[in-house]
Specification:
Length: 441
């Protein structure tokens, strides 16, 4: 080979080296070619981790990833952008999450939860229409209609034994609430209020023209009577006046030994508290003047006021200070509000949109736009929302670092009309049939 050819070969290889060497360096440094604009851009990474995800297949933007999950998986060198990550595993519901990968950063998805597949089963197989009213840790309350007679039953979770507590021939559906200790049931049918002992099934007719409600922590009934708050003693059957106010009282809720109530006068509406033991009254906060203000939820840390006309919920702090006019308040716009069991998160439903308000940080986070109204929403394990959308049931993981994940749990032929979670079991009603569904990881 003469010297000319050698120089040509050396020149070609030198040029090839000068071109490829930087590309190799950039490639190993995590740069990739963006085919949309033919530019080299830095990539990002994706970290997945969960407890029950071993051998799960990973799908990223409809492409199956080469490696399966083994509790954790590190996916390197993804172009920046939005990705849909899906995990599938035999005998488990598919898990899906939308994530954003940013250049030179790692996106972490931790605490991945896969729900085991299960077939919904009928709570009690019968040809008669049934309605699921509520559940406790020991039993479900159902209504069963047969031959124009509606029976109200307690159904044991453990044995499915039925206990008849009341029967009615009226067409009107009663409003039924259980006492906090689940010893009694309050039935309100038209203008009649009935107190039912769930152990003896004894029925007591309460005084008329009163809107009775339970103390949130005791088996005590209270109501409003003009400008006073009255308690009903279940043992003696006597009515006892607890509080009298110079202004009109529009709503009251009892929480242990404290009454929280709203007064309305020409000067405005005021939220107050009355400590029954000490006989002291405290002004908590001034409110917008309205007769549609209702107290919907109370914890030791805050109280929630619903304004039905404005479709708002106001969260008022009960712990930051004792100065009424300086109480911290937050106004939330929602059609419905559902607190988590530990009261740290509030699920806000407005149309088809779901947001979460964190009561510890006072921050609202957008979660999802469902495309259809969520007819029923409940919580599971303080971390998941169970949502009924028409005939579908979806579980949504709402942990702070894992907040757009969902798993499709079940589908029925007709719209779901009620939804409860109790003892790691989902209870729901569809087409007058009551189903149970285990929520297991």
């Amino acid at each position: 080979m003469n010297i000319v050819y050698r120089r040509i070969i050396i020149t070609v290889f030198s040029i090839f080296f000068l071109i490829t060497a930087p590309l190799v360096v950039l490639y190993t440094a995590g740069y990739r070619l963006n085919l949309q604009n033919f530019k080299l851009i830095p990539t990002g990474n994706l970290y997945l981790e969960g407890d029950d995800v071993t051998n799960a297949s990973v799908i990223i933007n409809d492409e199956v990833y080469d490696d399966v999950m083994n509790k954790k998986l590190y996916v390197k060198n993804l172009l920046p952008g939005n990705y849909t990550v899906t995990l599938t595993k035999d005998e488990y519901h598919t898990w899906t999450k939308k994530v954003e990968v940013r250049e030179k950063l790692t996106t972490f998805i931790q605490d991945i939860t896969l729900f085991a597949k299960a077939t919904p089963t009928q709570l009690i197989a019968t040809g008669d229409p049934q309605t699921l009213i509520t559940t406790t840790s020991d039993f479900a309350v159902i209504a069963r209609k047969s031959n124009e007679i509606t029976q109200y039953l307690l159904v044991s979770h453990d044995t499915l034994e039925e206990t008849l507590i009341y029967k009615s021939t009226q067409d009107h559906t009663p409003r039924i609430t259980l006492s906090p200790k689940a010893k009694y049931a309050l039935f309100v049918i038209q203008n009649q209020s009935l107190l039912i002992d769930l152990k003896t099934t004894q029925v007591t007719t309460l005084p008329l023209d009163y809107d009775w409600k339970w103390n949130l922590h005791d088996d005590e009934l209270i109501t409003l009577s003009k400008q006073s708050v009255v308690s009903y003693d279940i043992n003696s059957g006597k009515m006892i006046t607890l509080l009298e106010s110079p202004d009109s009282i529009t709503d009251v809720v009892a929480y242990n030994s404290t009454l929280y109530y709203i007064t309305t006068s020409p000067q405005g509406s005021i939220l107050k508290s009355f400590q029954r033991t000490l006989k002291t009254t405290t002004t908590i906060s001034t409110l917008l003047t309205s007769t549609q203000l209702r107290i919907t939820h109370i914890t030791p840390d805050f109280i929630i006021i619903h304004n039905n006309n404005a479709k708002t919920y106001t969260v008022i702090s009960l712990t930051e200070n004792t100065d009424a006019l300086a109480s911290t308040t937050h106004t939330l716009y929602a059609d419905r509000l559902v607190p988590s069991p530990n009261n740290k998160l509030l699920a806000l439903m407005r149309g088809s949109e779901i947001n979460i308000f964190d009561t510890t940080t006072n921050a609202t986070t957008f979660v999802e736009r469902l495309g259809t109204i969520a007819h029923h929403v409940t919580w599971y394990d303080n971390t998941h929302l169970i949502i009924a959308k028409d005939a579908d049931i979806v579980a949504m993981d709402l942990r702070v670092h894992n907040n757009l994940t969902s798993a499709h749990l079940a589908q029925t032929k007709k719209e779901i009309s009620s939804l409860f979670v109790m003892n790691e079991t989902l209870y729901f009603e569809s087409d007058s049939i009551i189903y149970t569904f285990p929520l297991t990881y």
